[in-house]
Amino acid sequence: MIRVLVADDEPLIRAGIRMILTSADDIDVVAEARDGREAVETARSTAVDVALLDIQMPVMDGLTALAEIGRAAPRTRVLILTTFGERDNVLRALGHGSAGFLLKDSAPQELIHAVRAAAAGNAYLSPAATRHVVDSLASPAATVRGEEARRRLAGLTERERQVLALLGEGLSNADAGARLHMSEATVKTYVSRILTKLDCHNRVQAALLARDAGLEPTAG
Which of 6, 80, 81, 165 maximizes the CB count within 10 A of its CB? Predict the structure, then answer.
């Protein structure tokens, strides 16, 4: 079972999310929180696979809670859920190590899919959030980010760069392994090594670095 924490200051929103998630036979909502601070404390004291955080919460907002959970419970994957889809929120969430970003008007099945993806160690961005990320790649700051990304990638081996390029394309470990003629376990080992070398919290951050650096997939 995928153990989920739902954090939102509105009881009706929490109840709705719980109803949607528990309709899946492999997801269990084991805890709820009314604000960011309570979410951090719950993640620290309760075994949680995925934390679903609203951005706008009292006491501590969702983005601050995201960073705190990353330190207090690094094994917990965090999805950001909000009514606000501005580019800055998306990029800040990814920069703080979020495993994904969803808008509150997302379809119920999309929410379930995102939780499953996060629990499996993959990333999930709603279509609206993806547009914001793509737009940011064309912004004036993209040139500066590209230079910084290429500098950080300089220490990777050729094989690590091949794996990272496929992460940038959004491939899972299994799909990347098939493309590179490697086992899924071997790809997972490479991914862990890449995250450590690049000082990235998760696959999303590494994938964005690959995109910023203009890294293109090559044949295995």
Answer: 80
Which of these, 136, 110, 124, 113, lies nearest to 204 by C-alpha position?
Answer: 124
Task: Report helix, strand or coil for 160.
Answer: helix
- pLDDT tens by residue, 174-195: 888 999 999 999 999 999 999 9
What is the C-alpha to C-alpha distance for residues 87 and 125, in angstroms, rounded to an integer? 12
For the chain, the straight-line distance linking the first and the last C-alpha, in angstroms and rounded, comes to 35
Q: Angle at CA 195, nearest 5°, toward 191 and 196? A: 120
Supply the pTM of this predicted model. 0.66
Helix, strand and coil percent figures for the chain, each rounded to 5: 55, 15, 30
- Rounded to the nearest angstrom, the gap between the alpha carbon of residue 200 and the centroid of all alpha carbons in its chain is 11
Q: Among all chains, which residue has been given the structure tokens 């949607």?
A: 20
The answer to whether the CB of 56 falls within 8 A of the CB of 30 is no
Lookup: tokens for 143: 């040139």
Tokens standing for residue 77: 């994957």
